[in-house]
Write a structure and sequence with these properties.
The complex is a heterotrimer of chains A (168), B (101) and C (499).
Chain A (H helix, E strand, L loop, with lengths): L1 H26 L3 H21 L3 H25 L15 H21 L14 H9 L3 H22 L5
Helix pairs in contact in A: 1-2, 2-3
Chain B lengths: L3 H21 L3 H25 L5 H31 L13
Chain C lengths: L2 H8 L2 H16 L4 H23 L8 E3 L4 E3 L1 H20 L11 H20 L3 H19 L6 H32 L4 H12 L4 H20 L7 H8 L2 H26 L1 E3 L6 E3 L5 H20 L5 H16 L1 H5 L2 H32 L10 H4 L1 H15 L5 H15 L3 H26 L16 H16 L4 H10 L7
Antiparallel strand pairs in C: 1-2, 3-4
Chain lengths: 168, 101, 499
Amino acid sequence: MDANLVTQIVFYFFAALTVLSAAVVVFSRNLIHSAFALLFTFFGVAALYVFLGADFLAATQMVIYVGGILVLLIFGVMLTHKLYDMKLKSETYQFWPGLALMAIVFLSLVGVMLRTTWHSQGTRALNPTTAAIGELLMKEYILPFELASIFLLIALIGAAMIVRRRSE
Amino acid sequence: MIGLVHYLVISAALFSLGIMAVLTRKNAVNVLMGVELILNSANINLVAFSRFSSADLNGQVYAIFVIVIAAAEAAVALAIVLSMYRLLKSVDLDKADSLKG
Amino acid sequence: MNPQILQDLQAFHPEMMITLTLLAVIVVDLAAPSIRKSATFLIAALGLLLALAFTVPLYGAPQGTLFYGMVALDHMAVFFKGFLILTSFFVLLAAPGSRELSKDHIGEFYALLLGVTLGMVLLASAADLLMLFLSLETVSLGSYVMVGYLSNQRESNEASLKYILFGAVSTGCMLYGITLLFGLTGTTKMAEIRDVIAQGAGSGNNSLMLLVSTVLILAGFGFKTAAVPFHFWCPDVYTGAPTPVTAFLSVAPKAAGFATLIRFFFTGLSRTSVVGAQWSPFAAVNWTLLVLMISVVTMTLGNIAALRQDNMKRMLAYSSIAHAGYILMGPVVLSPLGLQAVLVYLITYLFMNLGAFLVVIEIYNRTGSFDLKDYRGLWRRSPFLTISMTIFMLSLMGIPPLAGFFGKFYVFAAAVNGNLAWYAVVGALNSVVAVYYYARVIKAMIIDASVEGVEGGAIRLSWTSQVLVWIMLLPTAGLMLFWDHIQQLTGSSVKLFFG
């Protein structure tokens, strides 16, 4: 009983961390605050993956999202402002209609979700997943795996092509 | 007990927040953060359903691919944003108005 | 290696050829500047031709799914493979002749074009939602970069920024919808989704969630085919992108979007009695009504907005939005005739649209302008271009006996056959409205010559450009002569695999 309670408390802590930092990302006026709040959001999502038994995915999330995408975003923030611009302000337009729309979307989604009976083939046991995912990637998912490598090649060529300084 | 519904509510919250960021923010990098929130919410859905609905690892493999796609998309989007900054000295979306919509 | 994978690779030759060409172009692009332009062009052209040649034998291959159910191999997939590779080949031919594409880094442009082609081919045959999403993103990402190719020009950059932000949000919403569908059915394979829903997973309260996920997934499809209300990126992106890229976007990714829309709704969300004979949507989600509404709004808005445009590229952008509305009439009707109509329309659309854009490219090469007022008096400067453009405009209008008429005839006939005569009437009315903005171009080219003095000398085209225009012109004007073959080809391509 005690372990269950602790599990629940920790879960709610991480859930709150995720949603609240996402709220900071969206509502903060300061761009760097948004970027660092996004860090906590990603971290919270990784913790949720651990709760769902996705150990490989949690590690991947931390490495790629925090170590890659977030660093890239912060670079983006830093490189697109003048050096002396300390405030890094970010403005919004049509805040209140947007907020109303967001509330409508959220409430209707949750409302429909709660009424649905989701497909259920039983709950998966909490086993380590890395070996199984590796096997899946090499058998059932071999074609998406290879396409993903072409996809990354295209992204690489494309991003480099856009940013390179034109000599003409 | 923590059930499927808890995770779905969290992902719905992230999805709505992401939509809000995309619709109301003027800074291009901020809009990109909103897109990342949307993709993360879909990932939470996938992993939660993988645990509770399909009881196999398909959802998790799908989530891996989504992470890959999100990373590449963010890289290209930032390349375009940097290119915009070089041309206009600003990444305010209001300044992107040379093509009359 | 796994024997099944090896066996599946036998039916995968076109895709492998495209991949090999892509890698070869990247490697050759490292060569000396003097030879790499022509070398990469030749390799890319040869590779695409070979891939097209490999597509033809696939018509006789046994129907089924490849690679553990990721990709379907049926006649419709083979048709789209050939169609998409052919379109990329034509755009490849048009690329070196365009003033807008910088010569220095054009090897990268070819590589991107090949990568997008591979993504489109896989998108048109995707039988699994993961494969669908991944290939959709490959096509989109390549397109974002191709649009922003002129990174030192403000319009091109702005176009690619709007494109990627809009596209990322649309595909993000689509992904969310896919995850909800995954939760409802426990699987991502379209055939299995259909089976699970047929057994009752979509009944009762679940039908609302099914509707929500379908609407979200339609966001992605609507984005790719530029259907209302997901079309907002289209005019700006078409106008700002280099014109060969615009020509490509208006035909190929749109066609791939239609292919996957058809496959998703017909294989995943419809019940079929006898294989390939008649489909009916599940009672849980009436997607035909959704697509019907989108189609009507799309054709109307596209046509009305095109009326006021003075920029050729922007006008052609709205025109292509309207055409997407007509093409969507095919899936709504839910019959083999409707699907055949889509294929016929796409064939005619390929030639007349690419032809129109080719003329726009040539005129830009000469005059540096896309404005309609600079087309005045073109009759004096180049009768060849004027006549060609007139034929393309008349075909886009749908005037018989040009190709465009056949496309429209087929979709309207399919609608009437499916007891939706009012739908055909709406389409016909829209076509009448469209006559105005196409006729405006013809009028400017021919009649306005007598109003003002004509500036500039005669426009001489290089022989490669002339050949290209002829290649587009002949099918547009002479489709009637090949009518039997077209009918046979499209009729036999309507088979979808339902496994």
